[in-house]
Amino acid sequence: MVVSGFSGVGKGTLMKCLTGRHSEYALSISATTRAPREGEEDGREYFFRTKEEFEDLIARDRLIEYACYCGNYYGTPRDYVEEQMACGRDVILEIELQGALEIRRQYPDALLLFVMPPDVRTLLTRLQGRGTESGDVIRARLHRAVEESAEVEKYDYIVVNDDLEQSAEEVHRLIVSQHSRVEHNAELIGEIRSELRLLAEETGA
Ligand code: ADP
Ligand code: 5GP
To answer: Considering the entire predicted model, what is its pTM?
Structure first.
């Protein structure tokens, strides 16, 4: 599943809250060329890479998707996602719009969520309040948010990040309900169908 949203809406905070409450989710760690923020660690928030190292990952097909966002590369390492999916775990990618659309192309049944702020003033307060970007970077990210807002309808659901814990539970509920979709239960439906036929024969129905 994919989680996107405007810069500063609280995606990172929301994902930490969700995975803290529900350890069953596998949160992918992206590679990026942007500089670490204070408190961020290589291999925890991101794999921080140089432009050359990142381009080498692209050339060796080590990324499922990548995009350029406000002047930096961001991409999803392939190995972790494929390993976790092979184990049957729900993998969460916290990525921007272009990457989300690429994931939809490659995995048509991926769930795409877009995190919305309760209102735009709150978005600005959060983005400024984080205290990690200069005024120019904040303006560039808000400019990109205007563009991203034109494509929200390409997602499956929106989650309004007002109360953090309620929003995390809403994301959890959406993932759980996705498991009940008919197209994700083909094996179970097939088994019950053939067992039912046998049962009907056995009982002369
Ligand atoms: P994003 O990853 O979307 O860019 P962050 O997770 O870094 O955003 O959050 C931006 C700021 O907003 C942070 O200072 C964070 O503590 C704050 N924040 C996130 N979610 C909430 C919330 N539900 N209520 C209040 N503040 C929040
Ligand atoms: P930030 O610099 O605020 O951590 O992230 C900037 C943007 O890049 C956010 O919208 C975030 O979701 C997105 N992003 C983070 N990792 C990836 C990734 O692997 N691929 C893509 N396409 N976007 C990413």
So the answer is: 0.95
